[in-house]
């Protein structure tokens, strides 16, 4: 049944955008993780991502969405409560704290925001691969969503104090990527490192499968950034184009850096550059022009590269075993992109974003936006350091955070009773003997 407030084109685009963002997690990061780790961790790594996607969905519906986008409880979080009745799902999307609306049903918006929440946990899992207890992960996912993600989302997107200050996070550079990177680093430190033999030799078991996941991630980002105007608008088109321009530039820059430093172009390095480009443009995609996107792409191919390959080799970072370098690819790139918003955002972009006083960025003489972006980053960093540490310490009182020594040695077969690949006839995992 059609209603006056419904724009069918906007609704169709939003559902499409949500679906391809969901595909970034399932199957995108599921298969990327399965391919980029050692064979003995392929199933466990994929399953951590797969589980998080499902667990976030239920928690999001029952209490998470309203904490992130509902009526204000405190200046940084909304009142928890379910959106599960047909009356709720069919009504027009309204963000009660900010007073804004969208021409689509609540059901569409709840699902769209769910896939953003889910991928945050999936990204974070990359820092814990190869040693975190699956049972501890099962408890951690809904708790972190509740006490960290919803706070960041409400503060920046739901009408909370950072949004009223004028901090810009167009599509999740802070809410998603900085959060995942900081929480991943803190969690990696608390959980402890992988076995020494795994840290020393962690060759990917399937680079081509990793590239499949990377490709899904790149193209899925069109929904990630293109869906955040909440309309099939010209702003959506600009955001999609800027996303791909910055990402392509970052891939090229990272590859050149690899050639100069390591003397070889590495496909894993190119994938890292792809991720940092996608992350860095995310807070800026709809508020910068094409030249700004190119500048962000160059910066995201250089600064996170230095962070991962130079700074990441120092004593502190070697002590903390962030398996896939989530801190470098998401936290560093997220902060970089957020600050570059303050440097490169245009007045037209800020106006389209919805700022009441769109002064543009430093290039327009508005140095204050840079300061606002730093404040936003500082809040997200502090929030995730405190919440992640406390949650993991509390969980450790109930279940071990790490796998047992036997599980760490054997991997998937010991944990799940499954292995990623059968190398023998008829699916047997061991050679058939006998008559």
TrEMBL record:
The chain crosses the membrane at residues 12-34, 41-63, 110-129, 136-162, 174-195, 207-224, 236-254, 266-285, 291-312, 324-345, 370-392. GO terms for cellular component: plasma membrane. The keyword Transmembrane applies. GO terms for molecular function: ammonium channel activity. Keywords: Ammonia transport, Membrane, Transmembrane, Transmembrane helix, Transport. It comes from the Bacteria. It is found in: Cell membrane; Membrane. Residues 13-421 form the Ammonium transporter AmtB-like domain. The keyword DNA-binding does not apply. Belongs to the ammonia transporter channel (TC 1.A.11.2) family. This is Ammonium transporter. The lineage of its organism: Bacteria, Pseudomonadati, Pseudomonadota, Acidithiobacillia, Acidithiobacillales.
């Amino acid at each position: 049944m059609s209603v006056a407030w419904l724009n069918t084109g906007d609704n169709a685009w939003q559902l499409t955008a949500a679906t391809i963002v969901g595909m970034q997690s399932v199957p995108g990061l599921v298969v990327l993780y399965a391919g980029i780790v050692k064979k003995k961790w392929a199933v466990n790594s994929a399953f951590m991502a797969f589980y998080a996607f499902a667990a976030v969905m239920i928690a999001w519906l029952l209490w998470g969405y309203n904490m992130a986008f509902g009526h204000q409880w405190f200046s940084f979080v909304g009142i928890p409560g379910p959106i599960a009745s047909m009356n709720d799902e069919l009504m027009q999307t309204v963000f009660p704290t900010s007073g804004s609306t969208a021409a689509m049903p609540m059901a569409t918006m709840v699902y769209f925001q769910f896939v953003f929440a889910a991928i945050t946990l999936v990204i974070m899992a990359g820092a814990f691969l190869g040693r975190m207890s699956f049972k501890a992960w099962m408890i951690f996912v809904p708790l972190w969503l509740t006490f960290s993600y919803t706070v960041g989302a409400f503060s920046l997107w739901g009408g909370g104090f950072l949004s009223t200050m004028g901090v810009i996070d167009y599509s999740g550079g802070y809410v998603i990527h900085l959060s995942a990177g900081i929480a991943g680093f803190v969690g990696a430190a608390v959980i402890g490192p992988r076995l020494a033999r795994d840290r020393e030799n962690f060759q990917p078991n399937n680079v081509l499968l990793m590239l499949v996941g990377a490709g899904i991630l790149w193209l899925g980002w069109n929904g990630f950034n293109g869906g955040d105007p909440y309309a099939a608008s010209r702003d959506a088109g600009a955001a999609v184009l800027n996303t791909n321009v910055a990402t392509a530039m970052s891939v090229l820059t990272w590859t050149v850096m690899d050639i100069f430093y390591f003397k070889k172009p590495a496909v894993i390095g190119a994938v890292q550059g792809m991720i940092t480009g996608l992350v860095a443009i995310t807070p800026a995609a709809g508020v910068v022009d094409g030249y700004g996107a190119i500048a962000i792409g160059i910066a995201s191919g250089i600064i996170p590269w230095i962070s991962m390959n130079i700074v990441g080799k120092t004593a502190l970072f070697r002590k903390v075993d962030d398996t896939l370098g989530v801190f470098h690819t998401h936290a560093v790139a997220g902060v970089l992109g957020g600050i570059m918003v303050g440097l490169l955002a245009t007045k037209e972009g800020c106006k389209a974003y919805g700022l009441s006083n769109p002064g543009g960025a430093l290039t327009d003489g508005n140095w204050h936006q840079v300061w606002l972006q730093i404040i936003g980053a500082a809040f997200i960093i502090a929030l995730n350091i405190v919440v992640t540490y406390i949650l993991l310490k509390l969980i450790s009182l109930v279940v071990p955070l790490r796998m047992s020594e036997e599980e760490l040695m054997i991997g998937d077969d010991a944990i799940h009773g499954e292995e990623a690949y059968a190398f023998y006839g008829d699916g047997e995992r061991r050679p058939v003997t006998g008559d």
